[in-house]
Design brief:
It contains 7 helices and no strands. It is mainly alpha-helical.
Length: about 160
């Protein structure tokens, strides 16, 4: 199931089927964390995990296109890790609400797919403007650095 989402997201990025994105659609992580803290909304935690998964999948697709299979696999594995974290958070929210979790990973897959499209579009726009998908985009560089350290990212996301 996770593998199919990863492949689907990779194909979206590779085929250029991404939806138009505006930078406001990808609010910086600190802004999302501030909202999570002020609202006490546990769905924002899943959103942060989904953002990391989507970014990792896009980097994986770039590396795959460059023939760097090992690096691509490493980023895909990290994306899967974030998707599992998101699924666990969703199940925990359902449990607290007294709901039975149904198709939680399908929900995560859809969310990651949507955010992946946003990242894909932004990265393509970056390439058109600067000749590089990530470098020169301070927000994406910072997010990738954060997402590459999942335990630290999770602690920061959960911090008061």
């Amino acid at each position: 199931m996770i593998k199919s989402c990863a492949i689907w997201a990779l194909h979206l990025g590779l085929l250029g089927l991404a939806m138009p994105a505006h930078s406001a659609e990808l609010a910086p992580f600190d802004e999302v964390r501030a909202q999570y803290k002020s609202y006490g909304d546990p769905t924002r935690l899943s959103y942060l995990f989904n953002r990391c998964a989507a970014l990792q999948l896009n980097v994986s697709a770039l590396l795959q296109r460059k023939g760097q299979k090992k690096g691509a696999q490493d980023f895909e594995n990290l994306a899967q890790h974030y998707m599992v974290l998101s699924e666990a958070n969703e199940r925990d929210m359902d449990k607290k609400r007294g709901l039975k979790s149904k198709d939680t990973m399908k929900t995560v897959n859809r969310s990651v797919g949507h955010v992946s499209e946003l990242y894909s579009r932004r990265m393509k726009d970056n390439f058109a403007k600067r000749g590089d998908y990530l470098m020169g985009d301070a927000q994406l560089e910072a997010e990738l650095a954060e997402c590459n350290l999942p335990e630290a990212f999770k602690k920061k996301a959960l911090a008061d």
